[in-house]
Every structure is written in C-alpha cells, then in structure tokens.
Write a structure and sequence with these properties.
Elements lengths: L6 E2 L7 E5 L11 E8 L2 E8 L3 H22 L7 H8 L5 E2 L2 H16 L9 H4 L12 H7 L8 E4 L4 E4 L12 H15 L4 E6 L2 E5 L7 E7 L2 E11 L2 E7 L4 E4 L2 E4 L13 E8 L2 H23 L6 E6 L4 E3 L9
Antiparallel strand pairs: 1-11, 2-10, 3-4, 4-8, 5-7, 6-7, 8-9, 9-12, 10-11, 12-15, 13-14, 15-16, 16-17
The chain binds adenosine-5'-diphosphate and magnesium ion.
Length: 334
C-alpha cells in the first residue's frame, strides 16, 4: 500500500493538487540531478539519482526526448500531430496511425467502459469550443447541438491495422486527460531500463516516483484547491504514481460559476461535484485517467469505483470542501 499514514494540517477541510515537498536535503544531495522544462503545454520536473553523473544526465535527456516525442504525436495544438490528422480525417474513414497512438486510444476507451463514460476522449467535440484563457464558452444551443458527438462508442480502433475511424461527423478526440500520465509512465520505464533506481518525474499534476529518496519515502503534499500555498495532507510514497485533477488549473469564473477544463460528457459543461481529486496507484497512465474520471463522477460514485480497484486509492474534495477517502486510506484519516 502506498500510504503508511496521512496527516491533515490545521483545521482546514479542503485540499488539492500534489506538490512534491522539498525535503531537507542539505549536504545529502550528491548523486542527484534535476531538470525543469515546459513540454506538452505543462511544467515538467525530473529528478534522477545515479553515482555516474554522465548516466544521470543522459537519463534526464531521454525523459525529455520521450515527452517531446509524445507531444509531437498527440498534441491537439500541432496541426501536424497524428492526433490532429485523426481529428481532420477519421470521420471520412480509417486513418493510419502509429501503433503507440492506437494503443493509447484503446486504453482510453477501456477507461470509458470502466467509468461508465465519465472519462471520454470525445469530450473534445465540445471541449474545443471553450477558451479558458479568453473566458470563452459555447452557448447552450451550440452545446445541445454538439452533444451527440460526445460518445466514445463513435471511436473505432483497429489495433491490427493501426487505424482510427470515427462513426460520425463532428467527433473530435483529445488525450489531455491521459497523455501526460502515459508520458510519465513511459519515462519511468526508460529510466528503469537505464539502471536508475531512484527518481521522480512529474508532468503537471501527474507524478511518478521510483524507489525512495535518501533512504526515506518521497513526501507528497496535497494542495488546498483555493489556496496555492496551503498544504492539507502529506503522504509518504515509494514506487508509486500520484495524479491530481483540480478545477483551478485552467478556468474562468462567470457570474459566480466556474468554467474549467474537465468536462462532464453527459452535459458538455464543466463538472462541478468536486474541487480536486488525487489518485494513487501503480501506473501513472491510470492515475491520470482516473483523476479526471473521478472529478466527473463526484465523491460518492467516484470512491465506489476506486474501492473496486484494489491497487488504487483516492482522496476527493467535494464541491463544499469536504474530504472523501477511499477505503484503503480511510484507516489513516486523522
Ligand atoms: P491536467 O491536464 O490539468 O493535468 P487532468 O488530468 O485532470 O488535468 O486532465 C484534464 C484534461 O483532460 C483536460 O484539459 C482535457 O484535455 C481532458 N478532459 C476533460 N474532460 C474530460 C473527460 N470527461 N474525459 C476525458 N478527458 C477529459
Ligand atoms: Mg487526469
């Protein structure tokens, strides 16, 4: 299990995004190498330990290359990405893609099945009409007209042929709820293959730690969703993936209503039954997709789902700031 204890600081009842807490490492840092970057539209942070400095630095470069590769294939913002080509052409017939993209889309469809459609990469059929930076959103009539295009059953993947087709016009897909976790997980695989036994990789809200740090677990803090300096829960983790989804990452407020980047596929509107969701488990691809999923499902249905997945745990902050823990964490609650 990931967590030996949980502690909640202060009297606050709200929490959110994962922060890696800077450990007191003065004088104990030799062999550790770090790098920050901005890739896939998000902040990347990599920390690697190895006695061989050249190997450690090569390992960091391999991770950043992998992230650039995934961005080139899957970015919705690059007209030349495979994903953009799929969105332009897949309603006309099967579009050849790399086996890697076909596999990740297939996994996304499996998560849709698991979450009864709360996770749905066709959310983008309406999602692309929102501009969080400029405070733009589609009107109610536009949403109603486009809503039938949100349905993962419209997406057909042929693994053997490595093609993707859409069953209907107006369908778009976006892997923003799973690709960063996938990139982190792939990076961890590459690091292990290079003999790295202690590392941390994070891409936005998706983090994976390999091994421990100076003989102790990594300490992950969960952020207050309405106070970026407030930390509400600390968890020791080792060989674990942690993903957080929050409504404070990309959003605008209008007439007291928050419009943000996680869309309920049932309505085409932002999901509003949670402020933040953190998932812990063995695979960052899954913790990423599940954090987005639970944000849509809300605390009751979300925790019920996680309690059916023995390897995964969740902390949900509901719309009123109340905390909900999956059963594997509940015994550790203060
Ligand atoms: P972040 O991108 O901030 O790390 P998340 O992991 O929570 O956050 O993913 C949010 C992203 O997931 C959105 O920016 C969007 O690309 C995508 N998304 C939004 N709603 C859904 C949904 N219902 N199903 C699948 N993906 C979604
Ligand atoms: Mg996610």
């Amino acid at each position: 299990m990931c967590c030996n204890f949980m502690s909640r600081s202060g009297t606050s009842t709200v929490l959110a995004a994962v922060l890696l807490l800077a450990a007191a490492t003065a004088g104990a840092d030799s062999g550790w190498y770090r790098q920050d970057a901005a890739i896939m539209g998000t902040a990347i942070h990599v920390e690697v330990y190895h006695e061989d400095a050249a190997l450690a630095q090569r390992a960091i470069a391999v991770v950043l290359d992998e992230m650039h590769h995934i961005d080139r294939v899957m970015s919705p913002f690059r007209p030349d990405s495979e994903l953009s080509r799929v969105n332009r052409e897949a309603a006309l017939g099967p579009v050849p893609v790399s086996p890697e993209l076909a596999r990740l889309i297939e996994r996304a469809l499996q998560v849709s099945e698991l979450t009864t459609g709360a996770f749905d990469i066709t959310f983008a059929s309406i999602g692309y009409l929102y501009d969080y930076r400029d405070g733009k959103r589609p009107d109610a009539q536009t949403v109603q007209q486009a809503l039938p295009a949100i349905d993962y059953h419209h997406v057909h993947v042929d693994q053997a042929a490595a093609t993707v087709a859409f069953a209907s016009r107006g369908v778009r897909i976006d892997l923003g709820g799973i690709a960063k976790g996938y990139a982190v997980e792939q990076s961890a695989l590459l690091l292990r293959g290079m003999g790295i036994r202690h590392a941390m990789i994070s891409a936005g809200g998706d983090t994976r730690v390999i091994g421990d740090r100076h003989g102790r677990p990594w300490l992950v803090g969960i952020r207050h969703p309405r106070d970026e300096h407030g930390i509400l829960t600390r968890m020791p983790v080792q060989d674990e993936a942690v993903s957080t989804s929050g409504d404070y990452e990309r959003f605008f407020d209008e007439d007291g209503v928050r419009y943000h980047h996680i869309i309920d596929p049932a309505t085409g509107d932002s999901a509003r039954s949670a402020l933040s969701v953190t998932i812990l488990g063995p695979d960052t691809t899954m913790t990423d997709a599940l954090s987005t999923s639970l944000f849509v499902l809300g605390p009751q249905r979300g925790i019920a789902l996680i309690d059916r997945l023995p390897e995964y745990e969740a902390v949900v902050v509901d719309a009123r700031g109340g905390l909900h823990y999956s059963s594997g964490l509940a015994p550790h609650q203060p």
